[in-house]
C-alpha cells in the first residue's frame, strides 16, 4: 500500500464530505500520516454600485471561521488516532485547495464529489473536477454510493 505522509481533506460539511473523511480514516490505519481537514469559505462580493460596505461592529469572517473550525473539530473525531488538524480559509474553493496542497507539500488530496450532471453541472461546475485538473499531487475523489 502507498504510504502518504500528508493528506489534505477539503470539507464542505455535506454527507459526501463525511464519506471522504471515513476514506481518509481507512487510508491512515496504522498511523503515520498527518491529516488536514480544510474548509474554504467562498466570500460573497457585492458590486460597489449596491453601496453595501462592511457592517459596523460585525466581523462576519471571524464568526464564520470560528463556527467552521468547531464543525471541523467535530469531524476530526472520525479520525481516531490520527494527527489531524483543522483549517479554515477564504477564497475560491478549488483554487485555495490547490494552493494549500502546493504550499504544504501534500502527498494526497481526498475530496468528495457530489456527482452533478447535465445542466446542474454546467451551471454550478465542479470543485472536484477543477482540483483534479490542477492539483500538484494525486487526488482521490470519493462519491456517495
How would you describe this structure to a colleague?
- This protein has one domain: Rossmann fold.
- It is globular, with a radius of gyration of 16 Å.
- The protein has a five-stranded parallel sheet with strand order 3-2-1-4-5, sandwiched between helices.
- The longest helix is centred in the middle third of the chain and has 17 residues, at 60-76.
- By secondary structure, the protein is an alpha/beta fold.
- Strand 1 (6-10), helix 1 (15-27) and strand 2 (34-41) form a beta-alpha-beta unit.
- It contains five helices and five strands.
Average predicted local confidence, pLDDT: 84
The end-to-end distance, rounded to whole angstroms, is 24 Å
Question: Could you say how many structural domains there are in total?
Answer: 1
Read across the widest sheet, the strand sequence of neighbours is 3-2-1-4-5
Strand content: 15-25%
* Biggest sheet statistics: 5 strands, parallel
CATH superfamily: HUPs
Structural class: alpha/beta
Assign the CATH architecture.
Answer: 3-Layer(aba) Sandwich
Question: What is the secondary structure topology, with strand pairs?
Answer:
Elements: E1 6-10, H1 15-27, E2 34-41, H2 60-76, E3 83-90, H3 93-103, E4 108-113, H4 118-124, H5 127-134, E5 139-143
Parallel strand pairs: 1-2, 1-4, 2-3, 4-5
Helix pairs in contact: 3-5
Summarize the structure.
Helices cover 39% and strands 22% of the residues. It is of the alpha/beta class and 145 residues long.
Give the key terms:
single chain, 145 residues, alpha/beta, Rossmann fold, five-stranded parallel β-sheet, 5 helices, 5 strands
Amino acid at each position: 500500500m502507498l504510504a502518504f505522509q500528508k493528506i489534505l481533506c477539503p470539507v464542505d460539511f455535506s454527507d459526501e464530505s463525511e464519506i471522504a473523511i471515513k476514506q481518509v480514516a481507512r487510508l491512515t490505519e496504522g498511523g503515520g500520516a498527518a491529516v488536514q481537514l480544510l474548509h474554504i469559505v467562498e466570500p460573497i462580493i457585492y458590486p460597489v454600485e449596491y453601496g453595501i460596505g462592511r457592517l459596523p461592529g460585525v466581523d462576519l469572517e471571524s464568526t464564520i471561521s470560528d463556527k467552521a473550525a468547531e464543525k471541523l473539530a467535530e469531524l476530526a473525531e472520525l479520525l481516531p488516532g490520527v494527527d489531524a488538524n483543522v483549517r479554515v480559509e477564504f477564497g475560491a474553493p478549488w483554487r485555495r485547495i490547490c494552493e494549500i496542497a502546493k504550499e504544504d507539500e501534500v502527498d494526497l488530496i481526498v475530496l468528495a464529489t457530489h456527482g452533478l450532471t447535465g445542466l446542474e453541472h454546467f451551471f454550478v461546475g465542479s470543485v472536484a473536477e477543477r482540483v483534479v485538473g490542477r492539483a500538484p499531487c494525486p487526488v482521490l475523489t470519493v462519491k456517495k454510493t
